[in-house]
DNA sequence: AATATTTGTAATGTAAATTGTTACAGATTA
DNA sequence: TAATCTGTAACAATTTACATTACAAATATT
């Protein structure tokens, strides 16, 4: 199982926007911070916008959250960039024998368990909001600052 | 996020062996039922054997479970064919800026939440044993049999 | 209105992962 | 010894992910 880097990139940019609302976060700036190509960021922007999490504006790079950071969860961001469909997450082997008892039933047998696993994932990610992450980020910065590591 | 077909194939063959202990389940037979190449099955066999879930014997195809089906869970099978390491499941974007507050902290910030998600997945899959699946299969067969659907 | 800036997106290239296939050595049973 | 099957290596084909270039469309500033 592998979740593409787009998820961590998406959280990254959302956290930049939520954590530093006064900064102008363009795809260029975000790409510099995330260490990837600006077009990757724009594609992530597009997906986040499509999921009603982000408001982007051509021209002057006014990217803002579409709703309060207390109402945006990791699951929301996950769904924006990855599919939440069980069939997309757990890929079934095709061409199973329809004359075999196991082959003809394996799909319908396994499906509910896979659904359950996705639900567990959803429940866990839904507990964490962008506001939580922002606070954790601030805490980290504060603790590093007290150790004089910020400008080190 | 995508889990390779090897997982559903692995469950498939384990269920064949658990459900029909009197049948000789060779890689050839399993491949026929799963609709894939025998070598795929042998590779899955090797992984299941390596995870101490299966006992295979060259020569006469005596594949048997390494322990009772009540003590083999979906998580065991998952771990046999996929990595259970968080870093392998959730892939981070690399090359983040170390001079940016978000870039330098995003990894350590996100890691515990990803660990938590994997733990949720593990908890869910650990609840289901091969014996459970076997019973569900038997139920399905019985119910189809009562509708006269078994032999087409 | 003209210009500069930035997003949106298509097209293309490249690398990595997955799956399929052939081939054959090694183990086991009869 | 012969037949059968697993274990693996080698390689091709396919798919997916990520990077990059290029340019159209939208927006704000002057």
Structural key phrases:
homodimer; mainly alpha; Arc Repressor Mutant, subunit A; 3% strand; DNA-binding
- Runs of chain A in which pLDDT lies below 50 for 5 or more consecutive residues are none
Averaged pLDDT of chain A: 92
Query: How far apart are the termini of chain A?
Result: 38 Å
Q: Fraction of residues of chain A in helices?
A: 55-70%
Largest sheet composition of chain A: 2 strands, antiparallel
Shape by Cα distribution of chain A: elongated
Please indicate the count of domains of chain A. 1
Task: Explain what you see.
The structure is a homodimer of 152-residue chains. Chain A is mainly alpha-helical. Chain A has one domain (5-146): Arc Repressor Mutant, subunit A (Orthogonal Bundle). In chain A, 57% of the residues lie in helices and 3% in strands. Chain A has 7 helices and 2 strands. Chain A has helices spanning 5-19, 27-34, 38-50, 74-81, 86-89, 106-126, 130-146; strands at residues 54-55, 64-65. In chain A, strands 1-2 form a two-stranded antiparallel ribbon. In chain A, a hairpin with an 8-residue loop joins strand 1 and strand 2. In chain A, helix 1 packs across helix 3 and helix 1 packs across helix 7 (130-146). The longest helix of chain A has 21 residues, at 106-126. The model of chain A has no long low-confidence stretch (mean pLDDT 92). Chains A and B meet through helix 1, helix 2, helix 6 and helix 7 of A and helix 1, helix 2, helix 6 and helix 7 of B. The structure holds a DNA duplex (30 and 30 nucleotides).
